[in-house]
Amino acid sequence: MTNRHEASTFLDKSGVKAADLEHRRKINFNIGRYDAVVPMGKQQFEKIHLARERAKNIKWRSLESLDQQLERFELAFTRRGGKVIWAEDSADALREILAICNAKQCRAVVKSKSMVTEEIHLNKFLEENSIESLETDLGEYIQQLDNEPPYHIVTPAMHKSKEDIAKLFHEKLNTAPDLSPAELTLIARQKMRTKYLQAEIGITGANFIIADTGSIALTENEGNGRLCASFPKTHIVITGIEKVIPSMTDLALFWPLLATFGTGQRVTSYNSILSGPKQAGEYDGPDEMYVILLDNGRTNMLANTKLRESLYCIRCGACLNACPVYKNIGGHSYGTTYSGPIGAVITPHLKGLNDWKHLSYASSLCGNCTEVCAVKINLHEILLENRNEAVQQGAAGWMEKLAWKGWKKASLQRKWMNMGNSKIKNWFINRVFRGWNRQRADLHFPEKSFNQRWVEKHKS
């Protein structure tokens, strides 16, 4: 039986946000700025569609040989003194992180932006174990101050205006209530800089895992990830296993693609390749470096040939910015780490199809997400596949099954489709099947069906 709690919560939150015109104004303003710069970033590609196709092929090759690619990475990374930990689920990952923290007698952690750490709820876990965890990405820091999860994969505080942020800093940090964005940034920087020196451990994600060199690639615009990875004596990387690419030379394609489709830049401000802890004769870097390779449901998607390409995602966020549903209901309505079209595709398989199948229906199926995807994932088709799987696995309620069974039977019988006048049909559909128009306008049948009109026109 389907759990209706998550679905009803989603509908309630969506209804509130869709009616909030100020929220919609902020989102459309920020996405409008994104839309204005992306075409300029795309100009660096002579053949943008070919670049996307090549990136998709590289990710296809990576995922088809995922076990071999990850083992290549582990071998190369451990040769340089790094340590690899394989985590089957979030509990495994959290247990390993706590063990490292306890071994280092860690009381403070600095973090760079990472959706995987949000996926496993790392900040809450560390807080429960009396370990301070500070987000050093400005957007994530704003969200942490407000005790909210990220609103967007790339832009965590997209739903906040500069006035909202000034008010938040005034309430939480006792600053003047009318500071400019530049002044707010300086205050956040001052707070963070002392923490880099105090923290025993730095935690980052990884935009890419490079198999042939045993490296991880970090992409950012603030330099905070580089500081998290180099100032503390211990550096922990937490990443999903799907982030692997075969070779360092592939970054020449993926870094510009991620920058352009993520923020409209030709390339982001800070791009780092990290291949292990500090080596003999080197002065910079951590004494120890760990990479935690997280599964957490990803191999289930890998095993499903129809859904596998959803693992190609490079987390650029382009599909969120293009989605008409996301633009109206926002990121928090989804109630999960990954929002927007890609979230609707992967969440039911990461967290359970039975409870999260409703996200696959949160789409107009306009295909805009597929059109803008940096690696050409067929997102709208996978959403349909999710719906099909939900029905096949019995996640649909008995009323829904009965309704579709009746519709199928009627649609295959022409005399049934032509039976009765439009008033009777309208009443039956809109009053008996209340689930349909609870979130939609009433259906109105024409006086005559297409079949009847065709017959009348071609009587001769």
Task: Characterise the protein shown here.
The structure is a single chain. The protein has 460 residues and is α/β, with parallel strands linked by helices. It folds into three domains: 4-11 and 299-392, Orthogonal Bundle (Fumarate Reductase Iron-sulfur Protein, Chain B, domain 2), CATH 1.10.1060.10; 44-296, Rossmann fold (3-Layer(aba) Sandwich), CATH 3.40.50.10420; 404-457, no CATH class. It is 53% helix and 10% strand. Strands 1-10-7-4-2-3 form a six-stranded parallel sheet, with helices on both faces. A four-stranded mixed sheet has the order 8-5-6-9. Strand 5 and strand 6 form a beta hairpin. The protein is globular, with a radius of gyration of 25 Å.
Summarize the structure.
With 460 residues, the chain is an alpha/beta fold. It has helices at residues 4-18, 21-42, 48-64, 66-79, 90-103, 115-119, 122-128, 138-145, 162-173, 181-198, 224-230, 251-263, 298-303, 318-322, 324-329, 340-351, 353-356, 368-372, 379-392, 398-411, 414-418, 422-432, 434-437, 450-457; strands at 83-87, 108-111, 132-135, 201-204, 208-210, 215-220, 234-240, 244-245, 270-274, 288-294. It folds into 3 domains: 4-11 and 299-392, Fumarate Reductase Iron-sulfur Protein, Chain B, domain 2, CATH 1.10.1060.10; 44-296, NagB/RpiA/CoA transferase-like (Rossmann fold, 3-Layer(aba) Sandwich), CATH 3.40.50.10420; 404-457, no CATH class.
